[in-house]
Fold this sequence. Notes:
The chain is of the alpha+beta class and about 210 residues long. It has helices at about 25-30, 45-55, 110-120, 140-145, 150-160, 175, 195-205, and strands at about 10-15, 15-25, 35, 60-70, 70-80, 95-105, 130-135, 165-170, 180-185. It has a single domain, classed as Gcn5-related N-acetyltransferase (GNAT) (Aminopeptidase, 3-Layer(aba) Sandwich), CATH 3.40.630.30. The chain is built from seven helices and nine strands.
Amino acid sequence: MEHKKTYIRHTLPYRNNEIIVEGPVTPAHLQSLVMHPELDAFRKPRDQQEAIIEIAGLPEGRIIVARDSDTIVGYVTFHYPDEMERWSQGNMPDLIELGAVEVANDYRSLGLGSKMIRTAFEDEQMESYIVFTTEYYWHWDLKSSELTVWDYRKMMERLMQTVDMVWYATDDPEICSHPANCLMVRIGKKVSLESEEQFDRIRFHQRFMY
C-alpha cells in the first residue's frame, strides 16, 4: 500500500514569536530539534525523541510536531498497531493507530493538540485508512491537569472529534477494564467495505457481542 505523506506547515502567534505546527516530518528534521523537558509522559524526553525519530522513518509512520524555534513542545504519532495488541491481527495495511498525543505543560492552553491532529488529516492524507485510538485513563495526566478522570475523558473525546473520530464499541479486555477507557475510530471515505468488516471482527472476539 502506498502511504501518501504531504508535508504541511502552519504558524501560530505566540508571545513575541510563533509556534510552528508541521508534518509529517522526516527523521533528519527531528534529529535537528530538541525535546522540551516536560515531554516525559511516556519516557524520558531524549528517549521519546529517539522513539518518534524511529516512527517517522517507518513507511506508514508519521509524526506531526509543534515547535517553538528548535524545541519540540508537542507531537502526535501515527503508526501501525503494536504486534502484541489485538489491533494488529489480520495485518491490515489500512489500519493506522493514532498513538501518542503530548503537549508540554506551558503550551497546553493554545489548542496545539487539535491543531496537530487536524494537520495530519489535511489534504485527504488519511482517507484511505481506518484511524483508531485507544484511550486509557492510566496514560492521562490527571495530576497536572487537575481534571477528574471523566472530565479528562470528555476532553480527549472533544480532541478526537475535531477530525470526526467517534466512539466504537469493543470487547477488548484492556478497554473494558475501566468505564473511562474507550476506542475512537475514523473510517476514511476511500476505505473498502471489506476492511470495515475485517476491523469489526478485530473489535469483537466474543461473537455474541457483534
